[in-house]
């Protein structure tokens, strides 16, 4: 009976999560969809991939839509035999973002049921975790892969704890393997990597407990073996994705550097430190886990507009010279953010109540949880400081494998956002239920921690201006006193409101716990009070960053690249900043559409109007020189940095010709100007001269100055390719593109002499095959980043096809791994049921 009652409570809790998720996302009831910046960019960049899939029913693993061409492994490609991804899709069946919120709640609920085995605390912890502000910020931005990965954090940890702590080997294996597979399928390796840094502390904790004989060494070894097998099988179920991405990453900005210069060292792997550590959390800024506007909110908060208007009035009233105006302009940053990062969409607010209960948890929770959670929390906070704590960052960058593959160390705080709610409910559960803890001890810790927290808040409220400053170093340097004083006063007001709220929320929590100790308040009532106040706190803060304004009509969410302006469109915008961007880009979109419709041949467009490397509008309509993606091919990125981001009147056009930029678009989005480029080299051309150079630096420097229509720059290391392959000039020779698909190109060539054909196609050494008259031939890298192939004299049919072997190999490993998971799970359940039957028979005989 009790078991059935528990199932009812669990089912009711899941219903509560669905209700909360829908209540937070009420616009989905009217058919509206989230408008997410990164998903808009994805729709543009993936348009060629999506069109190919829709038109052919097949998948292309290469697309020319962005950055001259790149694999689609991180652009939404689908893999045949990818069963684990289908499971992920079914779990995320609810409309976005309801799906994410529900799974964040439900996943932590499972974790809560494992660690405390009480639905009330599991439900409370689920709201603590599922309402963490950072998740709502990344949902608003469109970091769907990131939040999709985070939603499997808690259930994966639940599976591991089932093995280590609960000694439920079979169920632990099933849960760990399943959610390890789903974690990898969500495809955000950075988040998974950060989680496993924290899990390392759990492993060490269990090892130490085994050494101290607090748990049997045999159990530790069996548990570690089961978890290792689970992780290996979970990874194996994603073999296609992992193997393809592993092959790809080596050729990207996350792989080995090619050039030697001020910011690069040839052969060194990973990103440069400046790029890695750009978004580093300030040391004091970490306290915005507890007070959301300690350093302001996001860089663009609603209050910022009013503040900016007043700043402009003050400047007009008090500034009398252009020199002073220029000086002030140097100090401007965000009105509503004054932390150490270049900018931010909002704080990683965990909740005042959650942080306070986490502090209590480090005193009340069991030792088998307390120390590893404390160690993992401290490490991740220190790593989040990034450039503000270089000794640790340097150590991890230089010595910890793969750490230098990831940027924005501030995002490692997702680990704290998992562990603080966990230690909070563990501590709260023991506070209420563990009879070994005396009332005197509980009261003493509550008064010390509660009084200390409230006293700390009072100190910040009283002395906040002098302690926190409320201004950046740039503002202190360049702003006159009248302007700095105004900003400090306004920012202090923003901070003070949130600090007072935090004081009230913590005071209510302390009072509820104290009254429960004194038997003046029922435990269940205390839990309800804490839950409701925490829910109100986090809900109201989250609504600053993900609210009704983030939703738009379905037509705009699914087609953000509008080409026609109308009264209806203007009416729909109605001051919505998201839709204003759609309206402001109508003219440039129409221009791009017109180019693509009038000229349907294959070429690229160089578009300066929206920022070459920060838009995919161009990619939506035609192949682009630029694009928007964090993981670009290294060679292409090098060329961008050398010639596109630093424009040279002679060299840059030379590179654009090389990349077949047939059209260039200048001006602004409102009045774009199209300039045809008749000097573009075309899809392919024959060269008669070869320039051999010794180093990559010489390669990239040479391509900006040579006549690349006649000469190809070749690395000396590839000189052997031309053994017995002469190249001779022929003024009548030609090579033309006859068929284009993103993963297959066909050319027809005619020449009287042997030629080197250079293709305006990005060199990628994995998966591309070149066939001359249907016979596969080797190809070589030319002009630092393009493909080239030797073509004998005569008429020839040349075909390039992208058939990466890693996809087929990975498919079979994925299927075998999933089959192994099913087989082992079925055997485990059978064995477990068989033992249960034996126990029942033995009891009946007894």
From TrEMBL:
UniProt xrefs under Pfam families: YfhO
Keyword Nuclease: no
Keyword Cell inner membrane among UniProt keywords: no
Transmembrane segments: 7-25, 98-116, 123-143, 149-165, 170-186, 192-208, 220-237, 348-365, 372-392, 412-433, 445-463, 499-517, 524-541, 812-832
Key words of the record: Membrane, Transmembrane, Transmembrane helix
InterPro entries linked: Uncharacterised_YfhO (IPR018580)
Name this protein carries in UniProt: Membrane protein YfhO
Organism, scientific name: Chryseobacterium rhizoplanae
């Amino acid at each position: 009976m009790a078991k059935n009652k528990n199932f009812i409570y669990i089912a009711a809790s899941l219903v509560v999560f669905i209700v909360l998720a829908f209540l937070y996302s009420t616009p989905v009831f009217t058919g509206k969809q989230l408008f997410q910046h990164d998903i808009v960019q994805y729709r543009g960049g993936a348009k060629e991939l999506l069109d190919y899939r829709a038109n052919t029913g097949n998948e292309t693993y290469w697309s020319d839509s962005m950055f001259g061409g790149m694999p689609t492994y991180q652009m939404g490609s689908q893999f045949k035999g990818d069963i684990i991804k289908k499971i992920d899709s079914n779990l995320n069946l609810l409309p976005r973002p309801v799906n994410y919120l529900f799974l964040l709640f439900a996943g932590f609920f499972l974790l809560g049921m494992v660690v405390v085995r009480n639905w009330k605390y599991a439900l409370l912890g689920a709201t603590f975790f599922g309402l963490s502000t950072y998740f709502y910020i990344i949902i608003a931005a469109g970091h769907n892969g990131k939040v999709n990965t985070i939603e499997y954090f808690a259930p994966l940890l639940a599976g591991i704890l089932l093995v280590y702590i609960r000694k439920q080997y079979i169920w632990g294996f099933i849960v760990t393997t399943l959610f390890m597979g789903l974690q990898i399928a969500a495809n955000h390796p950075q988040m998974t990597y950060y989680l496993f840094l924290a899990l390392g502390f759990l492993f060490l904790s269990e090892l130490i407990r085994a050494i101290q004989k607090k748990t049997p060494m045999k159990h530790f070894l069996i548990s570690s073996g089961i978890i290792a097998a689970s992780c290996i099988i979970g990874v194996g179920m994603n073999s296609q994705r992992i193997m393809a991405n592993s092959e790809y990453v080596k050729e990207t900005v996350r792989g080995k550097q090619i050039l030697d210069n001020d910011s690069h060292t040839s052969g060194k792997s990973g990103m440069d430190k400046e790029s890695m550590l750009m978004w580093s959390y300030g040391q004091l800024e970490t306290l915005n886990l507890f007070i959301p506007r300690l350093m302001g909110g996001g860089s663009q908060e609603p209050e910022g507009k009013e503040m900016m208007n007043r700043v402009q009035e003050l400047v007009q009233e008090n500034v009398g010279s252009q020199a002073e105006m220029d000086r002030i302009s140097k100090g401007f940053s965000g009105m509503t953010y004054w932390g150490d990062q270049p900018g931010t969409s909002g704080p990683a607010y965990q909740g005042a109540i959650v942080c306070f209960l986490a502090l209590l948890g480090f005193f009340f929770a069991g030792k088998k949880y307390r120390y590893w959670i404390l160690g993992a929390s401290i490490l991740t906070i220190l790593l989040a400081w990034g450039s503000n704590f270089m000794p640790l960052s340097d150590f991890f960058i230089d010595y910890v494998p793969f750490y230098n593959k990831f940027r924005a160390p501030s995002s490692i705080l997702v680990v704290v956002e998992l562990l603080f709610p966990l230690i909070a409910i563990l501590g709260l559960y023991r506070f209420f239920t563990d009879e070994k803890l005396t009332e005197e001890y509980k009261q003493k810790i509550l008064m010390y921690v509660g009084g200390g927290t409230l006293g700390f808040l009072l100190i910040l409220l009283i002395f906040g201006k002098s302690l926190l400053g409320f201004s950046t170093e740039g503002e202190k340097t360049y702003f006159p006193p009248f302007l700095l004083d105004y900003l400090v006063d306004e920012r202090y007001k923003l901070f003070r409101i949130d600090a007072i709220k935090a004081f009230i929320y913590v005071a209510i929590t302390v009072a509820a716990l104290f009254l429960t100790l004194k038997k003046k308040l029922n435990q269940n009532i205390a839990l309800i009070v804490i839950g409701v106040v925490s829910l109100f706190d986090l809900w109201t803060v989250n609504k600053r960053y993900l609210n009704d304004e983030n939703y738009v009509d379905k037509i705009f969410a699914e087609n953000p690249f509008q080409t026609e302006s109308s009264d209806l469109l203007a009416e729909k915008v109605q001051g919505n900043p998201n839709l204003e961007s759609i309206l402001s880009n109508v003219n440039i979109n129409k221009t791009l559409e017109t180019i693509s419709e009038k000229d349907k041949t294959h070429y690229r467009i160089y578009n300066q109007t929206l920022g070459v490397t920060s838009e995919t509008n161009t990619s939506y309509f035609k192949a682009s020189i630029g694009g928007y993606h964090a993981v670009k091919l290294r060679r292409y990125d090098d060329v961008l940095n050398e010639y596109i981001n630093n424009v040279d009147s002679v060299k840059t056009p030379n590179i654009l010709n090389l990349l077949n930029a047939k059209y260039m678009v200048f001006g602004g989005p409102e009045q774009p100007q199209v300039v045809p480029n008749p000097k573009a080299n075309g899809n392919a051309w024959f060269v008669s001269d070869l320039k051999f150079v010794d180093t990559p630096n010489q390669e990239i420097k040479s391509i900006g100055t040579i006549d690349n229509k006649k000469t190809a720059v070749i690395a000396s290391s590839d000189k052997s390719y031309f053994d017995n392959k002469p190249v001779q000039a022929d003024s009548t020779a030609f090579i033309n593109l006859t068929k284009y698909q993103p993963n297959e190109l066909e050319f027809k060539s005619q020449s009287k002499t042997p030629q080197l054909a250079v293709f305006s196609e990005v060199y990628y050494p994995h998966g591309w095959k070149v066939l001359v008259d249907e016979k596969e031939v080797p190809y070589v890298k030319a002009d630092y980043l393009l493909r080239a192939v030797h073509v004998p004299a005569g008429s020839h049919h040349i075909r390039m096809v992208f058939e990466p072997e890693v996809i087929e190999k990975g498919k079979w490993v994925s299927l075998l791994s999933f089959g192994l998971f099913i087989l082992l799970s079925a055997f485990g359940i059978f064995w477990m049921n068989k033992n249960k039957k034996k126990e029942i028979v033995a009891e009946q005989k007894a």
